[in-house]
Amino acid sequence: MSYSLLFASAFLAATILPFYSEVVLFAMIRAGEPAGLLLAVATMGNTLGAVVNWVLGRYLLHFQHKKWFYFKPRQIEKMQAWFQRYGVWSLLFAWMPVGGDPLTLVAGIMRVNLWLFILLVGIGKSLRYVAVIYFSEMSVAWF
User: Fold this and answer.
1) What single string gives the DSSP state of each residue in 19-43?
2) pLDDT, average across residues 53-59
3) What span, in angstroms and rounded, lies between the C-alpha atoms of 89 and 65?
4) I need a surface site. Which of 16, 61, 98, 109 has the fewest CB within 10 A?
5) Judging by beta carbons within 10 Å of its beta carbon (0-12, 13-18, 19+), is residue 129 exposed, middle or buried?
């Protein structure tokens, strides 16, 4: 497998599309690829995918009065209230399978500083990949 496939799968997994990068990462660990490079590629792809969500959120509200707009004003208010309650530190949990992607979208709506966003999301996502690599390498040792 190639590193570009890992990057693409990590990128897509961070967007609102249903996609999983852990399978590709696991396969590359099993193939004996260097863990540090895999960590860097997966984290970079996944973090950049989250930036796409941030950009979408940043400009999403310009379209809220259109008929085709997906979110209702009440939903947006609830998302903003939730984010204000838990703050930017909640971005450390953007890696979570449920709620992580909408969290990055809300961060864009709330106009979180992009560099702070990248830092916090990158830390959380890299720690998730560290765990995946660790358990993948343990499974390689077992089998």
Assistant:
1) --SHHHHHHHHHTT--HHHHHHHHH
2) 90
3) 30
4) 98
5) buried
All residues at 6 or more sequence positions from 69 whose CB lies less than 8 Å from its CB, including other chains: 63
Distance CA 30, CA 136 (A): 7
Residue found under tokens 């358990």: 135
Evaluate if residue 141 carries a pLDDT over 80. Answer: no
pLDDT at 113 over 90: yes
Task: List the one residue out of 44, 42, 45 whose CA is nearest residue 34.
Answer: 42
- HSE (side-chain half, CA atoms, 13 Å) at 39: 17
Tell me how long the chain is: 143
At 98 the pLDDT is 76
pLDDT tens digits, 82-93 = 888 988 999 999
Sign of CA dihedral 52, 58, 62, 67: positive
DSSP tally for the chain: helices H, then strands E: 6, 0
